């Protein structure tokens, strides 16, 4: 038995099997929830590459699995990451009970995560780009189920992923040359340049971000947010892996300056876009751009605390996207329409719990004190301010943009519905507060989990910090 | 532990009352519990007084080695008077509630106690991090309490705008922290770096509505007298504490005269509005704005004692008037004493506030006039006929309700005790009394047309600014829509390829043309 078999092949295969249960989404979701929980639990308890005695039999979970001449390797140092990934996946699969995305969500989530796990375990590691492309391809049924109107957005998403992939693969070939003859500066610069372009597409760095708001607007918000959370995070992780492996990248001050500039630009631009956006789904898309910008700023610090912050920012992001997209998905199904600010008018009176959940998520991502996004953003701002105050100001401006979006959403939710906008507002003769088809207890559970989770991280970030400090240790150089 | 005792009492009591309500406890028992909780909180502060200064780290964020600061509380000569003021107001709200039929509702008492608890937490904040946390908690609680009570759409808009400006103030505080760090220093209350000072001032000014001058509510949501008073006073108290600390730290501005002029304008506008509104509840936002503006003037002169005196006068002097709803001798007596205290007479808590008139500057008449109008408005509202109470109160109510008002006055005296005998200029009280008297005389003969104030109200409510900003944002939004259409349209991928080509050529050149 090997670790890749447990955390990559098994969930991937289960995902494909669950496709057969697409007609019974609750059962498929339940099985996926169980599998994700077991995988997270296994990552916490099952030691890799150490003898293990079970019922008298001794066996060892090997690190590597060889497939078609390539290897997949998961080391003990990567176990905290595996636990985090499957823990978050478990939460998203549980949240699906409330968000009610279509039946393909659970199977697709499983094999998406399997591919993304493979992306940071595959050797030669530049094959990760191929894994991202496969993830994108397999996510298509999730994002554009038959009859959906999200085809242009999904095509754009696929196009950008496909354009980005060859750059990374090509660089793999070049980097072999750079490693062989490190003195050739021009080769190193060209490799860095092409790598940068590949990342621009994969991460959706401004102005190549268009697929993010497009997906968030037209696809199911929950499914889109899952892909928008997982894929850029995995690509960021791949970026860290590159930094760790190649000294010429790690030692290039110009590269880190570029990362900071790109991050600051993304934070500023996305802050502006999100603050003025009128569609609640597209706001989520721009929030992803903002979050990617913050991650780049964290890496751009080029300090151990920056790499730790890269991981720390993922937790509030995962919880907030979960609550935001889950609430939005549920609301859209209740209202029967895609939600703009105009259509959201007066919804707080009809759906107070969902409205509170939506606001909680937005303000948490905006870094409002008390909520989960605050402590790590505050720390990032302080660290940036010491050496790059302009970058700290850009990060703050981005947060202010999201804050403005939150205020506009409150204003819409509590205002009177416009005459004739019955699609989103309470229908004539409808009760003043409607109880969801998902059941009031599900909503309560979902929101209590979201609120408590957010407050817990917001008040006690020091409980979580030691976990994040362990994550960069999976890199031999960056973790030092 | 002693430091958080008041907060714990004020938070535990509402929870207990909620439990009692679930168990269908009697209203009288609920009131008694509320009064007991508030009394214990108030009493715990007196045990704290001899032990000042006292600090307490609430959570150890630094334990994991990452966070440079942790949430902490600090009780010292600056924060203690504010905590006493808030605890006194909380107790007075409960005690006087029995004299007001509309306040006989447990929800209003629990809300008042919770807001007071968060207000005290904010006042006791030992560092900017804790202050940001406490300010936000207070803002969210106010939003939750105010929104359901805002019946009209414009009131709901006002509540949201008020929340937005308050939160913006919190973010400015965080930005001040960033600026301090950028200048190589840490923002701590004991030492406010010069780079962060102006931003910090702006943060407080924005939260108080002083700069840019704006009244959060031209007409407040329909709040009960007690809950409304606490809500309206707790948040300013949390901001004014920082103002006292900033003044104590000493902040220099490059264009101080301009700030003084703006603050003077704010004070005068608010005082005029306070003097002419029909009653003290309608004028509550104006009162707070006017008094805060005068506190700001003192802060600009780096006079922490004067800032503290103005702040306490705003909270407790105003509190006496806002909480006295029953006509009668008690209202006249307590209110009269409150009005006298507002004059800044020697050996009163506001005597230290008179330092803003020393030295005399070009702006002194502006502040004098504002002060006089505030005093005039106070007396006018005190003197206005109240609706007679149909059923005479029981004897114990006749004692307890005025006792609540007396408690506020005593709290005012106790909080300002350290400065009672301090030297202060003697002439301003005389000038203010004359000016207030003159205004009273003139006010009976000359009536300024209403449209003047309507115009001033629309100017200073900043609705025009929000409307202008809204239009500008609409334009900007249209521009961004255009950009989005280009990037997300049919030709979006082609545009991306063109941009990549540009990027390659640009980066290639930057990298030396390779």
Feature tags:
heterodimer, A: 480 residues, mainly alpha, two-stranded antiparallel ribbon, B: 514 residues, 18 helices, 2 strands, globular
Summarize the structure.
Chain A has 2 domains: 1-123, no CATH class; 124-474, no CATH class. Helix content of chain A is 71%, strand content 4%. Chain A is built from 20 helices and 5 strands.
Fold topology:
The complex is a heterodimer of chains A (480) and B (514).
Chain A: H1 3-18, H2 25-45, E1 51-54, E2 57-60, E3 64-67, E4 70-73, H3 79-99, H4 105-119, E5 122-123, H5 128-143, H6 151-180, H7 185-203, H8 211-218, H9 221-245, H10 247-250, H11 253-276, H12 280-300, H13 304-312, H14 314-335, H15 347-350, H16 352-365, H17 373-387, H18 389-414, H19 440-459, H20 461-470
Antiparallel strand pairs in A: 1-2, 3-4, 4-5
Chain B: H1 2-22, H2 27-48, E1 54-57, E2 72-75, H3 79-97, H4 106-123, H5 128-146, H6 153-182, H7 197-208, H8 225-249, H9 256-276, H10 284-300, H11 304-323, H12 329-342, H13 364-383, H14 395-415, H15 427-445, H16 450-460, H17 463-488, H18 492-510
Antiparallel strand pairs in B: 1-2
* Dominant shape of chain B: globular
| Total separate domains of chain B | 2
- Kindly estimate the percentage of residues of chain A that lie in beta strands according to DSSP: under 5%
How helical, in percent, are the residues of chain B? 55-70%
Strand order of the largest sheet of chain A: 3-4-5
* Fraction of helical residues of chain A: over 70%
Low-confidence blocks of residues of chain A: 422-437
Radius of gyration of chain A: 22 Å
**Head-to-tail CA distance between termini of chain B:** 67 Å
Shape of chain A: globular
Radius of gyration of chain B: 25 Å
């Amino acid at each position: 038995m090997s670790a890749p078999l447990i955390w990559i092949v098994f969930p991937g295969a289960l995902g494909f099997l669950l496709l057969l249960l697409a007609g019974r989404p609750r059962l498929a979701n339940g099985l996926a929830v169980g599998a994700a929980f077991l995988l997270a639990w296994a990552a916490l308890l099952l030691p890799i590459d150490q003898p293990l005695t079970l019922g008298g039999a001794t066996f060892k979970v090997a690190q590597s699995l060889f497939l078609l001449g390539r290897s997949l390797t998961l080391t003990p140092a990567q176990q905290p990451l595996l636990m985090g990934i499957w823990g978050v996946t478990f939460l998203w699969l549980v949240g699906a009970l409330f968000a009610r995305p279509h039946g393909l969500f659970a199977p697709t989530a499983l094999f998406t995560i399997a591919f993304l796990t493979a992306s940071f375990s595959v050797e030669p590691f530049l094959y990760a780009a191929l894994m991202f492309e496969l993830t994108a391809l397999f996510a298509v049924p999730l994002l554009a189920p038959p009859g959906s109107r999200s085809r242009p957005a999904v095509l754009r998403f696929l196009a950008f992923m496909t354009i980005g992939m060859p750059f990374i693969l090509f660089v793999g070939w070049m980097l072999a040359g750079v490693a062989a003859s490190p003195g050739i500066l021009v080769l190193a610069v060209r490799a860095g340049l092409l790598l940068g372009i590949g990342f621009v597409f994969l991460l959706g760095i401004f102005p190549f971000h268009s697929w993010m708001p497009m997906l968030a607007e037209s696809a199911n918000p929950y499914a889109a947010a899952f892909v928008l959370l997982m894929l850029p995070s995995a690509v960021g992780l791949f970026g860290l892996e590159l930094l760790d492996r190649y000294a010429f990248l790690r030692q290039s001050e110009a590269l880190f300056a570029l990362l900071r500039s790109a991050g600051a630009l993304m934070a500023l631009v996305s802050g502006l876009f999100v603050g003025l956006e009128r569609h609640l789904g597209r706001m989520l898309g721009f929030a992803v751009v903002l979050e990617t910008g913050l991650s780049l700023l964290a890496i751009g610090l080029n300090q151990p605390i920056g790499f730790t912050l890269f991981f720390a920012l993922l937790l509030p992001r995962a919880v907030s996207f979960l609550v935001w997209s889950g609430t939005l998905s549920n609301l859209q199904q209740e209202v029967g329409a895609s939600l703009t600010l105009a259509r959201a008018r007066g919804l707080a009176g009809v759906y107070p719990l969902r409205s509170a959940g939506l606001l909680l998520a937005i303000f948490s991502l905006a870094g409002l004190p008390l909520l989960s996004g605050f402590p790590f953003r505050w720390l990032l701002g302080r660290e940036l301010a010491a050496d790059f105050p302009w970058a700290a100001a850009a990060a703050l401006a981005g947060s202010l943009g999201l804050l403005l979006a939150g205020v506009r959403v409150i204003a819409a939710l509590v205002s009177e519905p416009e005459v004739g906008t019955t699609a989103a507002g309470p229908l004539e003769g409808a009760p003043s507060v409607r109880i969801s088809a998902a059941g009031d207890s599900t909503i309560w559970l979902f929101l209590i989990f979201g609120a408590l989770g957010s407050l817990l991280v917001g008040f006690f970030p020091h409980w979580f910090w030691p976990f994040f400090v362990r994550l960069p240790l999976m890199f031999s150089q960056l973790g030092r | 532990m002693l430091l958080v005792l008041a907060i714990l009492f004020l938070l535990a009591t509402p929870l207990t009352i909620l439990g009692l309500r679930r168990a269908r406890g009697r209203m009288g028992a609920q009131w008694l519990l509320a009064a007991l909780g508030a009394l214990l909180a108030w009493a715990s502060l007196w045990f704290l007084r001899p032990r000042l200064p006292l600090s307490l780290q609430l959570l150890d964020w630094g334990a994991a080695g990452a966070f440079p600061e942790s949430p902490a509380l600090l009780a010292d000569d600056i924060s203690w008077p504010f905590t006493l003021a808030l605890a006194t107001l909380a107790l007075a709200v409960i005690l006087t509630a029995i004299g007001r039929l509309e306040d006989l509702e447990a929800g209003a008492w629990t809300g008042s106690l919770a807001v007071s608890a968060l207000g005290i937490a904010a006042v006791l904040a030992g560092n900017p991090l804790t202050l940001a946390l406490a300010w936000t908690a207070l803002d969210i609680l106010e939003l939750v309490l105010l929104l359901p009570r805002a019946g009209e759409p414009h009131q709901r808009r006002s509540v949201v705008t008020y929340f937005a400006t308050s939160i913006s103030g919190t973010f400015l505080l965080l930005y001040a922290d960033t600026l301090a760090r950028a200048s190589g220093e840490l923002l701590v209350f004991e030492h406010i770096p010069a780079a962060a000072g102006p931003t910090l001032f702006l943060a407080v000014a924005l939260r108080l509505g002083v700069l840019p001058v704006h009244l959060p509510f031209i007409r407040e949501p329909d709040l009960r007298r007690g809950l409304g008073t606490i809500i309206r006073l707790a948040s300013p108290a949390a901001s004014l504490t920082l103002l006292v600390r900033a003044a104590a730290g000493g902040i220099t501005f490059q264009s101080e005269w301009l700030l003084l002029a703006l603050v003077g304008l704010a004070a005068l506008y608010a005082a005029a509005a306070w003097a002419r509104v029909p009653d003290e509840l309608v004028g509550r936002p104006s009162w707070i704005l006017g008094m805060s503006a005068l506190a700001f003037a003192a802060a600009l002169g780096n006079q922490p004692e004067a800032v503290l005196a103005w702040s306490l006068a705003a909270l407790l002097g105003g509190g006496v008037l806002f909480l006295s709803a029953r006509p009668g001798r008690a209202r006249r007596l307590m209110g009269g004493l409150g009005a006298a205290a507002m004059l800044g007479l020697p050996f009163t808590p506001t005597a230290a506030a008179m330092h803003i008139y020393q030295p005399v500057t070009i702006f002194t008449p502006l502040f004098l006039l504002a002060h006089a109008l505030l005093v005039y408005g106070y007396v006018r509202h005190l003197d206005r006929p109240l609706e007679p109470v149909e059923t005479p109160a029981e004897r114990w109510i006749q004692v307890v309700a005025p006792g609540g008002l007396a408690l506020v006055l005593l709290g005012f005296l106790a909080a300002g005790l350290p400065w009672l005998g301090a030297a202060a200029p003697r002439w301003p009280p005389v000038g203010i009394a004359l000016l207030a008297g003159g205004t009273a005389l003139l006010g009976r003969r000359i009536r300024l047309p209403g449209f003047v104030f309507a115009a001033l109200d629309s100017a200073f409510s900043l609705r025009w600014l929000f409307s202008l900003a809204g239009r500008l944002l609409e334009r900007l939004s249209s521009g961004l829509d255009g950009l989005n259409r280009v990037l997300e349209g049919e030709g979006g991928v082609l545009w991306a390829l063109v941009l990549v080509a540009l990027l390659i050529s640009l980066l290639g050149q930057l990298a030396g043309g390779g």
